Amino acid sequence: MPEGPSIVIAKEEMSVFIGKKVVEAHGNTKIDSDRLEGKVLSDVKSWGKHLLLCFDDFTVRIHFLLFGSYLVNESKSANVRLGLFFKNGHMNFYAASVKVLEGTADSLYDWSADVMSEQWNPRLAVKKLADKKEELICDELLDQDVFSGVGNIIKNEVLFRVGVHPNSLVGKIPSKKMKEIVEQAQNYSFDFLRWKKENQLKKNWLVHTKKECSKCGRLLVKEYTGKKKRRSFFCTNCQKLYV
């Protein structure tokens, strides 16, 4: 599943169509694609893992799920979920969830929860976490209402950066350390964005999918943690368990 930084890249690639009219819409999506034809794409936004195609009075939400993908000015043999043609090119979405939301993106989304938004509010994230003392930090980092855009890679790398075990209880993590987690959730997301653009993302992973700790050299643990049972990679020596 693409994480927030990957959606930002998609948004940037599709920005060439802003202000352009949809000449043709097609695909096996269940939405009324005819509604899009003749409409002007007013903006392309990203909120966490959602790509938002903005029109005057409605928004098309693209969620890539586990296997979704897109191409700009290219095509492949797979079935197109939604394809939009403009005079200056086209975009195709594959194996993604496509939904029409009535209203503007700004009226529908809380930008303060998006770690990559200029409106990201770290203090609000800390406040939300204060109400989830009995939850595991590995689950809360994946909570899109708190850290919109953070996915499993970012979760693992952030917890390694700050030295916190994924099975730590939120309420037991010291406030200074919790603020560090919140800060690094944003910092690492922008590092992720830069590395991905440079095709250097995997080379910069310190713990995700790795076998040995880059700090102490011990074997890392791979475990499916939390309620979400997502893969966690961590070092029991360098990451403290708060319980």
From TrEMBL:
One of its GO terms (biological process) is base-excision repair. Residues 2-89 form the Formamidopyrimidine-DNA glycosylase catalytic domain. This is Endonuclease. It comes from the Bacteria. Residues 206-240 form the FPG-type domain. It comes from Paenimyroides baculatum. Pfam families: Fapy_DNA_glyco, H2TH. GO terms for molecular function: damaged DNA binding; DNA-(apurinic or apyrimidinic site) endonuclease activity; lyase activity; oxidized purine nucleobase lesion DNA N-glycosylase activity; zinc ion binding. Belongs to the FPG family. Keywords: DNA damage, DNA repair, DNA-binding, Endonuclease, Glycosidase, Hydrolase, Lyase, Metal-binding, Multifunctional enzyme, Nuclease, Zinc, Zinc-finger. The keyword DNA-binding applies. The keyword Nuclease applies. It catalyses: Hydrolysis of DNA containing ring-opened 7-methylguanine residues, releasing 2,6-diamino-4-hydroxy-5-(N-methyl)formamidopyrimidine.
